[in-house]
Write a structure and sequence with these properties.
Helix content is about 35%, strand content about 15%. With about 375 residues, the protein is α+β, with helices and mostly antiparallel strands. The strands form four sheets. Strands 1, 2, 5, 6, 7, 10, 13, 14, 15 and 16 form a ten-stranded mixed beta sheet that branches. It has a two-stranded antiparallel ribbon with strand order 3-4. Strand 11 and strand 12 form a beta hairpin. The longest helix has 19 residues, at about 160-180. The protein is globular and about 60 Å long.
Length: about 375
């Protein structure tokens, strides 16, 4: 595992978006400056190179950001204090299309540099101390959404070797179907994620590996809230997952770790991801995923920490022979590649409920029922 620096984090659009949200929460002037910068831009989405924001208003935003007093973050000890901005960062991730303009402007050099003081305060805050930690082997929970009263399928049944083989065959088939000559703008969209999910062509042909996240204070599982491309679920079942003793976990704490995983176990996805990752990154590349079937020979799981997600998610990461994108993962999510896990049959039911009258200013919260 390579040490992730503050500059590595600031290279990540998800981390910059989080820091901008933190700054806006600390200083109302940030929101006004962002609005002034975006007002002349008519688009809601776009890559930074296509937006051409006005330099004067970008510099004005940078000045406001540089003056934000973030010292109070040092007194934050409750991990839940950062939950709203974490959720905002995850909710605004769209690795299948150009980003929100609010995301894109954080890549302006002057804005990125002006976010540094807030970024330093965020990573130094006690409430964020768990973001860069390895998988919590003692408190893993599988999150199963309940939609219209029916629990969703969150993992494919059967021996893991068979599921992994099906995943690989589905990826290869998708790559073959997607191979079409011509300009990238004329190519079709499709799968955009780099998780071990591949649905296949035939009914019942999906290959979905089990995943889990940790329990964070009063939140039943971070996986109930921090989800890319969320369905807005308001009810979940949580089941405790027990990893095998001595589980071999590949840890992703930054972009360099994700690149090393892909380089060590490359799976070509140039055609299947061509259009969506070009849309979201502006680059046409020989794209790669991790070959999870090959990863399973050496590791029992892959864990992307909160820090790893914020640093790496949603951007093109160079690897030997091309590039890759960490997409579809949740912060602190672990995908399991072994049969040697135990998932408890008894589930906890959690529901997202509106705050009571006495907490009318609070956001809805997850409650165990």
């Amino acid at each position: 595992m390579q040490q992730t620096t503050l500059d590595d984090l600031l290279d990540g659009p998800r981390f910059r978006t989080l820091c901008l949200a933190v700054a806006a929460g600390l200083d109302e002037g940030v929101h006004r400056a962002v609005t002034a910068l975006l007002e002349p831009i008519t688009a809601s989405y776009g890559l930074l190179a296509d937006l051409r924001p006005e330099q004067d208003t970008a510099d004005a935003l940078a000045v406001v950001l540089s003056d934000v007093d973030a010292t109070e973050l040092a007194s934050w000890t409750d991990p839940m204090r950062f939950l709203p901005v974490l959720q905002h960062s995850v909710d605004s991730a769209m690795p299948w299309q150009p980003p929100f303009v609010e995301d894109a402007i954080t890549g302006l050099p002057s804005v990125r540099n002006a976010l540094r003081a807030v970024a330093e305060a965020v990573v130094a805050s006690p409430a964020a101390s768990w973001w860069g930690t390895d998988v919590d082997r003692t408190a893993q929970w599988v999150t199963q959404p309940v939609r219209n009263g029916v629990p969703e399928v969150v993992a494919t049944s059967g021996p893991m070797a068979e599921v992994l083989d099906r995943w690989r065959r589905n990826v290869v088939a998708s790559e073959g179907r997607s191979r079409v000559a011509g300009p990238v703008v004329d190519s079709a969209g499709g799968a955009w994620w780099s998780t071990p999910h591949e649905f296949g062509d035939e009914p019942g042909g999906a290959a979905i590996l089990p995943s889990s996240t940790r329990r964070v204070d009063g939140l039943g599982s971070s996986g109930s809230t921090l989800v890319e491309d969320s369905f807005g679920d308001d009810e979940v079942l949580l089941r405790s997952l027990h990893p095998p003793v001595g589980a071999r976990v590949f840890e992703v704490h930054g972009a360099a770790d994700w690149a090393r995983l892909v380089e060590r176990y490359p799976m070509p996805a140039q055609w299947a991801r061509r259009r969506v990752w070009w849309e979201s990154t502006g680059r046409e590349e020989h794209w790669f995923l991790p070959d999870y079937a090959a990863v399973a020979a050496d590791h029992d799981a892959v864990h992307v920490s909160v820090q790893g997600y914020l640093a790496a998610a949603g951007r093109a990461i160079d690897v030997d022979g091309g590039a890759t994108v960490l997409a579809g993962w949740s912060p602190d999510e672990t995908f399991w590649l072994t049969d040697d896990i135990v998932i408890e049959p008894d589930a906890e039911r959690w529901q997202l409920r509106s705050a009571g009258a006495e907490d009318e200013d609070d956001e809805p919260r997850w409650v165990r029922t």
